[in-house]
Amino acid sequence: MAIEVRIPTILRTYTDGAKAVEGSGATLADLLNDLDARHTGIRERIVDGDNLRRFVNVYLNDEDVRFLDGIDTKLSDGDNVTILPAVAGGSV
């Protein structure tokens, strides 16, 4: 099962600069474990224990996984997963 994972700039140090990598897994949790096996350390930047970190957004085919089943969201061959850190700030 091949799933394309789009990696934000801030996490590309874990993927040797790759903008996208392939992974596999039946759920998002499985996929993140697979990614961590290939790109050590990336999982802990995305999840805290068994939950997505508060300021990291993950999308499955452009749909926020928090509105699906979170880290237990089921995946299928050919899916696209996008990891985006939340951006905040600015001046008043």
UniProtKB/TrEMBL annotation:
Ranges annotated as spanning the membrane: none
Pfam families in the cross-refs: ThiS (PF02597)
Signal peptide: none
Matching NCBIfam families: moaD_arch
Protein name as it appears in the record: Sulfur carrier protein CysO
Organism encoding this protein: Streptomyces hundungensis
